[in-house]
Amino acid sequence: MAHSLSANKRIRQTAKRRARNRARKGVVRTQLKAVTKAFGAKDAGAAATEVKKAIVTLDHTASKGTLHKNTVARKKSRLMKHLNALKAAAK
Fold it and tell me: What is the pLDDT of residues 46-86, one digit of tens each?
């Protein structure tokens, strides 16, 4: 247990940030699951819509500092790669 006021405040701040970050990461995971489901259905139109939503969510999470920008860039790149492969297979 912390004894000083500043240490107690730091504990409170950390708990708030952790809760906020966990919520944001949960939203990202949920969105990525929706994209995976669309990919599994082999529906390029639905997948494109879900990928756009996922990219917005990922960018927002990176801008808040919850996820590192390179992590987000890597995830976006992989999503687009998968989407482009799906579109090419549909043609």
Answer: 999 999 999 999 999 999 999 999 999 999 999 999 999 99
Q: Which two tokens stand for residue 19?
A: 């809760």
Sign of CA dihedral 17, 63, 70, 33: positive
Which token pair is 17? 């940030």
Q: What is the pTM of this model?
A: 0.90
Rounded to whole angstroms, how far apart are CA atoms 69 and 58?
9
Cα distances (Å, whole numbers) of residue 74 to 30, 61, 79, 87: 18, 14, 9, 20
Domain boundaries, the chain: 26-90
